[in-house]
Write a structure and sequence with these properties.
Elements lengths: L14 H51 L7 E6 L4 E6 L2 E7 L4 E6 L5 E4 L5 E2 L3 E7 L5 E6 L6 E4 L4
Antiparallel strand pairs: 1-2, 1-5, 2-3, 4-7, 5-6, 7-8, 8-9
């Protein structure tokens, strides 16, 4: 015992103290995690709405800068699948699936299709796409103006 005498003066945590700290941290995490999950869902909703608005603007730019007069550009929304597709001359060139927890609730475009003229404007009028977070029931509205083609994201319905 003489050669280990210097170890008896070392201070350390006991197993009971470590378990108590882990229990307190677990309780704090259990309370905080649902709030963090709500923030994550809202961030996914915001990102999905901004990406959709960006894709609509991209399609408008493609249509406006094309050299072909008979090009056909449109966006097809699939509310049941929670995705949308970008088309040029009836061929899909991009498919976007919404992130988990984000629902494509509805659109008011005829046949869930946003047609873009060769001038980059919505043909057949503008409209709105409604996205929602299924956990927090928060909504985002992607609005396309009928005359100007302006695309914006809003928290309030138009």
């Amino acid at each position: 015992m003489g050669k280990y005498k210097h170890l008896s003066n070392c201070r350390a945590f006991t197993l009971v103290e470590l378990v108590a700290v882990l229990a307190v941290m677990s309780i704090i995490l259990a309370v905080a995690l649902p709030k963090l999950n709500g923030h994550l869902g809202n961030a996914r909703l915001e990102t999905a709405a901004l990406q959709m608005a960006g894709d609509i603007r991209y399609l408008q730019q493609l249509a406006a800068t094309t050299e072909e007069e008979m090009s056909n550009y449109y966006l097809l929304f699939s509310p049941t699948e929670h995705k949308y597709r970008l088309f040029k001359n009836h061929q899909s060139f991009k498919t976007v699936t919404l992130p988990p927890g984000v629902n494509l609730e509805s659109t008011n475009f005829p046949n869930n299709r946003l047609n873009i003229s060769v001038k980059g404007l919505p043909s057949g009028g503008g409209g709105t796409v409604v996205l929602s977070n299924k956990d927090t029931q928060k909504h985002k509205y992607v609005v396309v103006a009928s005359i100007t083609g302006r695309v914006r994201v809003s928290e309030t319905p138009p």
